[in-house]
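Practice problem: predict the structure.
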Amino acid sequence: MQRRRSVPHTFEENIAAEKAKLEAQIAHLKPGPEMDAIRKKIRQLETASHMSEWISSSGLQTPT
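Answer:
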C-alpha cells in the first residue's frame, strides 16, 4: 500500500505557517527571555520572506 503524499508547500507558505505558530505561542507568554527569543525568530522569518520576494522578483532591485 502506498502512502499518500501531501501537497508540497512553497517556501513562503512554510514561513507564514511558522510565523503564525510562533505568534500564537507568544500570545500566551509573559515578558522575558523566552518571549524575546520567539520575537527574534519572527523577525528572522520576516526577513527571510522579504529576501525571498526580492530574489524572485522580475526586476531585481536593491532593497530600500
